[in-house]
Amino acid sequence: MTTALTVRTEELSVRFAGVPALDRLDLRLAPGKIHGLLGRNGSGKSTLAATLAGFRRPDAGRVLIEGGDLGAAQEPYENAIVTSRVGLIRESGDVPDSVPVKHAVRLAAALRPYWDADLAAELLDRFEIPLNKKIQKLSRGKKSALGVVLGLAGRAPLTIFDESYLGMDVPSRNLFYDMLLADYAEVPRTIVLSTHLVNEVSTMLEEVVILDKGRLVTQSPVDALRGRGASIVGPAAAVDEFTAGFTVLAEERLGGTKSTTVLGDLDPALLGQATAAGLEVGPVGLQDLFVHLTGAQS
Ligand SMILES: Nc1ncnc2c1ncn2[C@@H]1O[C@H](COP(=O)(O)OP(=O)(O)OP(=O)(O)O)[C@@H](O)[C@H]1O
């Protein structure tokens, strides 16, 4: 039985040639949730993922992983007990690619204490990955899919997908999201999805960590983040009048109808005004907030 792990970082810093890739991060990833690790290119997502998985030693501060069958908090670096329970799936694959797929599957089965062979067989079949083909002969998408299969079937109590599915086409990515959600419902574990495809994963996420230039921008439950703003939809003139005093994150127009995303709290009085003006008020999109918080261009 897999048991989810809790992750904490304390003042975690990682530097390359003196330049910080992670800068004094204090995080807590609650057990048994799907966390989005979001950030623009170079914001430190891969460095954080590798450090959580024990692939990299912090330059300062520390990573602590606890709970499940690990018990008390332990640091992952050079710790075989912890690293066998943490699955990091990167696009590079991290498997020797001169061997056939079935060898990589056997190796993963031997290394992963919670490996599920039936799930692996089902996933290899669903993603149409040929068992006898050498990994180096697989297409980029199939290589990514193999990484995803090994990551899901490993059922590691902390499983981190570091943009490992980006090489896959849309139907394959959708299959990955469906299989992840189905298996997570059956065997809860702590999942981290590192990505900049915010829209694609936003409905799956329960918690979000946003990095920018190695710093923590925010860590928050998704619902709380969505509550930081609102989208106002209705006749363009009425939307413009209502949103005049707000910080606008995004605007979209279709004929006479407009949708404007604003930052700020809409109290009941304002919500009443919006309804009276014939406007619809919805939660803010995660992508719009991400763009705003990281200064990215959509
Ligand atoms: N091995 C390395 N040597 C030197 N600098 C590195 C190394 N790995 C990462 N960096 C630097 O650390 C910073 C963070 O990189 P990182 O790969 O963690 O970001 P990321 O958010 O995963 O980016 P992306 O979305 O582009 O994959 C960047 O400035 C990058 O250039």
From TrEMBL:
One of its GO terms (molecular function) is ATP binding. Residues 7-238 form the ABC transporter domain. Keywords: ATP-binding, Nucleotide-binding. Pfam families: ABC_tran. The keyword Nucleotide-binding applies. This is ABC-2 type transport system ATP-binding protein. It comes from Kribbella aluminosa.
